[in-house]
Specification:
single chain; binds fe (iii) ion; binds adenosine monophosphate; 297 residues; binds zinc ion; alpha/beta; 7 strands; globular; seven-stranded mixed β-sheet
């Protein structure tokens, strides 16, 4: 490889991946190499609540001849549900955006001891140092790192089992983190020149809160796209979301949500965004840049 077209001549565009900077298992550099190997033409690094991997990924993407899209997956809340918002091409130097992300990482850090206390109540002893070791160089620490620590001490055998038994919403050690309201996050992302796209809207966690009428409201409040083609959505769900996006004038995206071996069975380019949709997203990016008064990117 790498031919930027796949065997049937499609240009592969994957707009949602994670690195070791959050809860993925490939470094940003290795991720770009893997993207090249998978034949991707375009790849976005969208770590949870941080832009820290961009510089390394950008440099590696240039070396590999893969087009890099700087992105971030922002944790937000809507009707008390956890909703993930992808921001594509935001200005990494935007102060309000970075303040929001710093606040989110602080609430992530504050949550870890509370999760450990819950586990302790159930007789499971994991220390903050165990989680830190599992997190390695991550600047955005999350439940997957607690899951990895549980695997390391032999309490469970996989991340998936750790979530199923302990960490998922409704399980004994679930603790939610404080997160900005979705509408506020959309405003902050747009003001930073970022294109807001709802990540896996009808995946676990957000499906109940993101009703059709909620999506209609969001479409009038600056939301630009829906990540329809995602591993968490089955075929009928994708069909319904595609129809809704069409009705509401939202751009349909697709992406792998790759986490390396942190998410078993999910490969780069497994779900992709159509070139025409990518074109529309870039047009919105350019409009937002003009509205901010800067030169076109
Ligand atoms: P956090 O951001 O710390 O709340 O953790 C959420 C992350 O954990 C998601 O982005 C996924 O990467 C991962 N995750 C959530 N639910 C599960 C699950 N049931 N099994 C495995 N990983 C999960
Ligand atoms: Fe994740
Ligand atoms: Fe997500
Ligand atoms: Zn993700």
């Amino acid at each position: 490889m790498s031919d930027p077209l796949d065997s049937v001549g499609r240009m592969l565009i994957d707009l949602h991946t994670h690195s070791t900077v959050s809860d993925g298992t490939d470094t940003p550099e290795d991720l770009m190499g893997a993207a090249w190997q998978a034949g991707l033409a375009v790849v976005a690094l969208a770590d949870h609540d941080t832009t820290a991997g961009w510089a390394q990924a950008q440099a590696a993407a240039r070396r590999c001849g893969v087009r890099f899209v700087p992105a971030v997956e922002v944790s937000t809340s809507w009707q008390r549900a956890d909703v993930h918002l992808l921001a594509l091409w935001p200005d990494g130097d935007d102060e309000r955006l970075q303040q929001m992300l710093t606040g989110l990482r602080t609430s992530r850090d504050d949550r870890v001891p509370r999760i450990l206390a819950r586990l302790h109540e159930h007789g499971i002893e994991i220390s903050a140092a165990d989680v830190q070791q599992a997190a390695g160089d991550a600047v955005s620490v999350g439940r997957p790192h607690v899951a990895d620590a549980l695997v390391a001490v032999g309490v469970v055998s996989s991340r998936a089992e750790a979530f199923e038994v302990w960490l998922a919403d409704g399980r004994p050690a679930h603790v939610s983190k404080a997160a900005p309201d979705l509408l506020v996050a959309i405003d902050v992302v747009r003001a930073a020149g970022g294109v807001p796209v709802l990540a896996h809207p009808w995946g676990r966690g957000s499906v109940a809160a993101l009703t059709e009428s909620a999506l209609a409201v969001l479409a009038t409040c600056g939301l630009v796209g829906l990540e329809v083609d995602h591993v968490d959505h089955d075929a009928p769900t994708r069909e319904r979301l595609r129809g809704l996006a069409d009705d509401l004038g939202l751009v349909v995206t697709g992406a792998s949500d790759y986490h390396g071996h942190g998410k078993a069975g999910v490969g780069l380019g497994e779900n992709v965004t159509a070139p025409g949709a990518f074109e529309q997203l870039q047009q919105v990016r350019d409009e937002l840049a003009r509205a901010r008064g800067g030169p076109d990117p």
